[in-house]
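pasting for the record
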Amino acid sequence: MYRDPWRGRVRALEKNIIKFRAIQSVLAIYYAEKLKRDIISAVRCNVVRDDRPISIGKAAKAWVEKGVITREESNKIRDLIDYRNNLAHEFHRMNTDLSTLRMSPVMDDVKQYDYAVMRQLKATIKLLHERAQSSLEWCIPMGLETLDFETTEHVLTSELKALDRKINRLLDKRRMERDRLNHEIKAIREKFSGKLELPWRLRHENGRLTKTGAALCEEMFDSGHSATAVAYAMEMSITSARSRLRAFLSRNNGRHSQQHSE
């Protein structure tokens, strides 16, 4: 079984993606609730004209019957609201791809996170208001809820923009790291394939390296390979690989220090 060299540690890229999704989800839930509220309040104001409970399905149908939106647009609204329900009730299943667990308990029912939904919800709200304004027989009552959330919305939106820039920088860095590591690990496996094919000689049952395994690490360091690449090749932790590299460089008076990059 493959062992993650980072041993469950959440790195900067994943941390910021989690923050981004959390903030975006808060906004998406707010926009979905506003969308439902606008659709229902418009029907109550223009069609029903009383306080009887109205489901979002019946309210959207009334919009279609009045010709304010199309059936396809109504179906899209239903899909957006369904996604909002997933965010509210099954957010954990939408972040399984960022889990540091070696085996996720929800892998059999993963739900894909959709970064576009928040923007689609906001655009749909704008579309409905534009349609209502252009209609002589239809209106959406204005509530005070939007004003209550205005400051929070501004702060969260600004934070999303800052996180987006940070994530793009980290993603570029991760891609370069991935390409370098793939090249380096391929070189390690080609050079040390015979020894790597005998894993029982490299570590004890408790996972600690044998003398043979420790010697192989030093051979890799002596060939100029980084601690990170050695950790992946040897299926050991990054922390252990870096510790062994420091010890190796210390014994060799730093003569290899310019070759290594952790």
